[in-house]
Design a protein that fits this description.
With about 350 residues, the protein is mainly alpha-helical. It contains 13 helices and 8 strands. The protein has 2 domains: about 190 residues, Cytochrome c-like domain (Cytochrome Bc1 Complex, Chain D, domain 2); about 140 residues, Orthogonal Bundle (Cytochrome Bc1 Complex, Chain D, domain 2). Strands 1-4 form a two-stranded parallel ribbon.
Length: about 350
């Protein structure tokens, strides 16, 4: 009952909060003389779906909290344990992540970037407010295993956080809402928009695709873009892509309980896909070749299979081996090296 009360309160707070206009406040400026928190929103992106205020104090506190293992019940697991900067804040090469007491999660860790352009979060979209999205990681038994109340108590026992909360919110007291607010401000600034693809689209630095990348881009537009729409490379929907005849994980049906959403999961962004393996909600595919082989010849006839994957009565997307090689060449142009090396998002 206590958890439900907290969630209802946070939902109310967040609803009011999201009425604020997205702006760069007066202290939303320099971390060092040539570096700002967000210089500008990407010119090749649509307007964000989320409108929030970000301050330097909020960003700094959020960063400390993101890398803070003492938020977990064992004081050993931080958000950054599963969301690694070098993997675009996914958990590279792990099907599922390891949480407190070596417990294994149930689903593959989604990367963290471009959250301002989402309207829901998690593989099944059960959270529709960016501010509330960290609650799952904090309170899940297999992840950080704590409660919001315990997280507040832990932070109040750490004197170094008093000034950070004051810089962020004008008061030294740690509260549940302020923890979530600061984490939101930090993760909201994780914008990935400087890949080779972006520089081609914006005509920057005389960047052009090579022959294979260009061919792969054309194939991608023909074969993949109905779900993975540019420039975010997701359409934000939830689909069943025929991974199995009977779903081991019911997906969005955990919300609807009507059977029609069984096996449906988020269409993830393909940005940084080269460095966020393994793939799918359960991490079943280790390589992009395996992913494309599935879509080409291995789609199962699940009762909720999305119609996108049926062509002229036949399951699958027609892709030759050469087509797949060219598409992968294009997908690698979505890797944003500047983002994963951005010192603003690294603790060390």
């Amino acid at each position: 009952m206590r958890t439900q009360s907290v969630l209802k309160t946070l939902l109310l707070i967040s609803s009011v909060y999201l009425l604020c206009a997205f702006r760069l406040s007066s202290d939303f400026v320099n971390i060092n003389p040539d570096d700002t928190i967000i210089n500008k929103l990407p010119s090749n992106f649509p307007p964000p779906n989320v409108k929030i205020t970000i301050t330097k104090g909020g960003f700094d506190l959020g960063k400390e909290l993101f890398f803070e293992p003492r938020l977990s019940i064992t004081r050993q697991v931080a958000c950054s344990n599963c969301h690694r900067a070098s993997a675009a804040f996914a958990d590279l090469n792990n099907k599922v992540s390891t949480g407190v007491s070596d417990r294994k999660g149930k689903r593959n860790t989604l990367p963290l970037f471009n959250l301002l352009w989402q309207t829901s979060y998690m593989w099944d979209g059960r959270v529709n407010d960016i501010k509330l999205s960290p609650i799952n990681a904090l309170t899940n038994h297999d992840e950080m295993g704590t409660s919001l109340e315990e997280a507040v108590r832990n932070l109040k026992s750490l004197p170094e956080y008093a000034q950070l909360f004051k810089d962020a919110f004008g008061e030294t007291e740690a509260t549940e809402g302020r923890i979530l607010d600061a984490l939101m401000q930090f993760t909201a600034t994780m914008i990935s928009a400087n890949s080779k693809y972006d520089k081609v689209m914006r005509n920057e630095e005389n960047t052009v695709f090579n022959e294979n990348e260009q061919a792969g881009y054309l194939l991608f537009q023909q074969k993949c873009s109905s779900c993975h729409k540019e420039p975010l490379f997701t359409d934000g929907t939830f689909r069943n892509n025929g991974l199995e005849l009977e779903s081991n994980d019911i997906g969005r049906d955990t919300l609807t309980h009507d059977g029609t959403q069984t096996g449906r999961f988020r269409v993830p962004s393909l940005r940084n896909i080269e460095i966020t393996a393994p793939y799918m909600h359960d991490g079943r595919f280790a390589t992009l070749k395996e992913v494309l082989k599935h879509y080409s010849t291995r789609i199962q006839n699940h009762k909720n299979l999305d119609k996108t994957f049926i062509e002229n009565g036949t399951r699958g997307i027609t892709l030759t081996a050469m087509d797949q090689t060219k598409i992968i060449a294009f997908l690698k142009t979505l890797t944003d090296i500047e983002f994963i090396n951005d010192k603003r998002f690294n603790k060390h």
